[in-house]
Write a structure and sequence with these properties.
CATH class of the largest domain: Mainly Alpha
InterPro entries: DUF1759 (IPR005312)
Shape: elongated
């Protein structure tokens, strides 16, 4: 086994260990009755960064791995990627359920108030903000949605708004703000 391959595997082992600890913390927070969604968003951001690092290392390791060991290497890589994807999905789903729960409570309170003054109500469709990857042609549409739903929402503090912004970014856009 070459020295470069050994170094990449050691680095990957260290990042995987750190990622496993993060996944354990995410699992604990997701299982809470009322999870801290801001903390979950932060963990998702960290997990995405770790995932990118692992993908890069996995490519290098696969390139350097002898053919007879390649199948086992790819199986190991895929198992770990599956675990990351599973927890990203579960965490996002839990954040969304928490958001819907809060929205439902706020909506119920608002609806009761409105009904006491006016019996007619209008059911509005749920606002969905599309993710932004950094493609300049999609910026205006993304910003219009985000600005209306979150940026101009006085009920949210700046930190919540920024955390929400980061949760809607992917690809190059997410990498640009990852360290902030």
């Amino acid at each position: 086994m070459g020295e470069a391959l050994e170094r990449m595997k050691r680095k990957r082992r260290t990042i995987r260990s750190s990622t496993t600890k993060l996944l354990t913390r995410m699992e604990e927070e997701v299982s809470e009755e009322q999870p801290d969604c801001e903390k979950l968003r932060e963990m998702l951001s960290v997990l995405s960064t770790k995932e990118e690092q692992l993908v890069d290392l996995d490519r290098g390791i696969e390139y350097e791995t002898p053919t007879d060991e390649l199948e086992a290497e790819i199986a190991s890589t895929q198992d770990y990627q599956d675990r990351i994807i599973t927890w990203k999905t579960r965490t996002k789903r839990r954040i969304e359920r928490s958001r819907e729960s809060v929205s439902a409570r706020v909506s119920d309170t608002s609806r009761d108030s409105v009904r006491s003054h006016n019996q007619q109500t209008v059911k509005l469709p749920k606002l969905v903000i599309e993710k932004y990857s950094g493609e300049i042609s999609q910026w205006q549409e993304f910003w219009s949605q985000y600005e209306t739903a979150i940026h101009e929402n006085d009920a949210l503090c700046k930190k919540e708004k920024f955390t929400d912004l980061k949760s809607y970014l992917t690809g190059a856009a997410a990498r640009t703000v990852a360290g902030l």
